[in-house]
Specification:
- By secondary structure, the protein is of the alpha/beta class.
- The protein folds into two domains: 7-65, DNA polymerase, domain 1 (Orthogonal Bundle), CATH 1.10.150; 70-361, TIM Barrel (Alpha-Beta Barrel).
- Helices cover 31% and strands 20% of the residues.
- It contains ten helices and 15 strands.
- It has helices spanning 14-23, 30-40, 54-63, 135-150, 174-185, 205-212, 229-235, 244-255, 278-290, 316-328; strands at residues 7-8, 64-65, 70-76, 82-87, 93-100, 105-108, 112-114, 129-132, 160-164, 197-201, 219-223, 264-270, 296-302, 332-336, 360-361.
- The strands form three sheets. It has an eleven-stranded mixed β-sheet with strand order 14-13-12-11-10-9-6-5-4-3-15, with helices on one face.
- The longest helix has 16 residues, at 135-150.
- The structure holds iron/sulfur cluster.
- Iron/sulfur cluster binds next to loops.
């Protein structure tokens, strides 16, 4: 990656910010003011931090960056979902999706630009891995979206939930992810606590064990999408590295870390004629029951077909039948309503696509 010459302050913890501030010859207490400015007040330029002396703002401008992502385009779906196509300082795509519901907002952020995993049903996979996003870029995605929706620095009406389900495999960018989540959880910042965050992995098994041990751990979702190794090898090639037995052993261990009332999720993308038969549903229920997982639910996701992928969504009757079979075998199954399909914002559709779009607002 082309190195940034300036330090991106959004990726620093309060302690690191204190060290940075002292390094440029300023008193340590300024760090808290700057941290609040960047995160709690969501200011994206030093000039806007009018509680800082002008000389300090200028000094910061010379050595540091308050913001690095540029919004190239914003797409608004008929269902209120918004998709943001941003660019990093080195011109790589970052996509973030805002999904409003009546009582809460959910922001789906990307952990990588592109993705190295080659899930066959996913558009992002076609980009390959461009690079890991930095902690600052992870945090900034949320700031940009909240400012766009509510206005810079304005209070948000209700809490924000985060899902790490955008482009990329979060567990292949583990260190930056955990750092960013720590920064976002700060009370004097965005204050999005781990309990409001769900991270989705395609099955990077060693990291599931590591994630289970985190003291302040977000929720976990594992993308499954096939009930046996042969089909999963084809749909999600990461399965050739860690197969279902290994994945379920990790899931079982993870289950031990669940808090009271918490469950974890398996996601299953239903692909018409590929993994959506009654036989697949029975196999899936048997797989879960055989491994004795108790506190798990299945989210069924109708595939969001998009060119040039050759998959088609499972039809509504098939999905109902699939769900019924799981439930009859004691598995909790839920149907996730796809949001923002018309603007390529739905699962597996993030690939810096810009056409066709009903509403494109370039800024
Ligand atoms: S589904 Fe997720 S993990 Fe798989 S290729 Fe797409 S972005 Fe990567």
């Amino acid at each position: 990656m082309k190195r940034m010459e300036k330090t991106h302050l959004a990726g620093l913890t309060i302690d690191e910010l204190a060290a940075f501030v002292e390094g440029i010859g300023e008193p340590k207490y300024r760090a808290k003011q700057i941290f609040k400015g960047l995160h709690e007040r969501r200011l994206q330029s030093f000039d806007a931090m009018t509680d800082l002396p002008k000389a300090l703002r200028e000094k910061l401008g010379e050595t540091a960056a308050a913001a690095t992502l540029r919004v190239e385009a914003r797409y608004v779906s008929t269902d209120g979902t918004r998709r943001y196509l941003m660019k990093t300082h080195d011109d790589l795509p970052v996509e973030t999706v805002f999904i409003p519901t009546e009582d809460r907002d959910t922001i789906c952020f990307s952990s990588q630009s592109g993705c190295p995993l080659k899930c066959d049903f996913c558009l992002t996979a076609r980009l390959g891995l461009l690079r890991n996003l930095t902690a600052g870029e992870l945090v900034e995605q949320i700031v940009v979206v909240l400012n766009d929706v509510y206005g810079a620095g304005r209070e948000t009406p209700h809490g924000t939930n985060l899902v790490g389900m955008g482009a990329g495999e979060p567990f292949l960018n583990f260190e930056n992810l955990i750092r960013a989540l720590g920064i976002m959880a700060e009370e004097e910042g965005l204050h999005i606590v781990p309990n409001r965050v769900t991270i989705s992995t395609a099955g990077i098994v060693p990291k599931i064990y590591e994630f289970a041990k985190l003291e302040k751990r977000p929720h976990l979702a594992i993308s499954l999408s096939a009930p046996d190794d042969a089909l999963r090898d084809k749909l999600m090639p990461i399965n050739r590295r860690w197969n279902l037995d290994e994945l379920f052993a990790a899931a079982k261990e993870f289950e031990k870390s669940l808090r009271r009332g918490e469950r974890f999720t398996f996601e299953y993308v239903l692909l018409g004629g590929v993994n959506d038969s009654d036989g697949h549903a029975r196999k899936l229920a048997n797989l879960l029951n055989r491994h004795g997982l108790q506190r798990v639910k299945i989210n069924l996701i109708a595939h969001n077909s998009a060119e040039p992928l050759e998959y088609r969504p499972a039809d509504a009757e098939r999905i109902e039948s699939f769900k019924r079979i799981l439930e009859s075998k004691g598995v909790s199954a839920y149907l996730r309503t796809p949001r923002g399909r018309d603007i390529y914002a739905a699962c597996g559709q993030l690939a810096a696509k810009s056409e066709p779009n009903p509403v494109r607002i370039t800024r």
